[in-house]
Amino acid sequence: MSETEGVAPENDGITEAEGETVGEAKWVALRELERRFPGLDKASVQFTVLSEGERGLLGVGQVPARVIARVSEPPPAAPPASEEPGTSAAKLRELLERVCAALGAPCRIAITEDEEAIHASLSGPDLGLVIGKRGHTIDAVQYLANAVLWRGSDEGRKEVVVDAAGYRERRREALEGLAERAASDAVQAQRPVALEPMTAVERKIVHVHLAERQDVVTSSDGTEPNRRVVVSPAPSE
Amino acid sequence: MEELLEYLARNLVDKPDEVRVERTERDGAVVLRLHVAEDDIGKVIGRQGRIARALRTLVRASGGHQHERALLEIVDAR
Question: Which domains are present in chain B?
Fold first, then answer.
């Protein structure tokens, strides 16, 4: 591939490439790595952008975008599609593979199951589009996964939780921070404080977190999708 | 994105063979028209429209990936 200028030896997991856009340069680099490592897991490739590039005007001042692509150590994850075919986990994996393909986001999918829930966790280099603004896209994926897996039947029903790049844990921390601030405001002003609208799962995080505090009580108000948690000062005894 | 929409719809309805996705363009946007059996309309709309809203979110996101504005229209033949 003429665009690549590998300073490193050919069999190294690192390559440099250029293209008209960063996306194109990444694609060229990925193709080169795939040539060296057939069956390469795209999710294990990390990119460093050297130059964003300039489109230039009428071919003048055009600077190509340049990236370095590096194959990181493949994480010792469970082999893919280890689930029994036809199980909920296998069905969930198929759904998520299709979602990632449609969104152009290469990802690795890890699925674990316990008594109460099936957890799917996506990892990959570029999951922004899968998560979406304020998590709207991943929440939609999670909602549809629940609907598809338990279509018309509550038998053996477990909650399906879909996570990407640790988003849910970060969101949980943010929600707990929000909850604490709302509780302090409610106590200080001695009046109820309403939070922004949230999904049922997120509201539960707030309720559970604030249940530990003796100075506030929580309730939910409004109808979906605008249902929100209201934090009120605890009635004095 | 048609493939994903068709796959999801087929897995939500009772009559998957009657699911059809038609791609049209309107005012510079891609419009995916989802056809399902008459009895299945509720299945792709969901309680308080939540399934339809989630499908719309995914159609929009997959359009964004292709740098297209993509919309979902659920066709009610009645």
Answer: 2-76 (3.30.300.20)
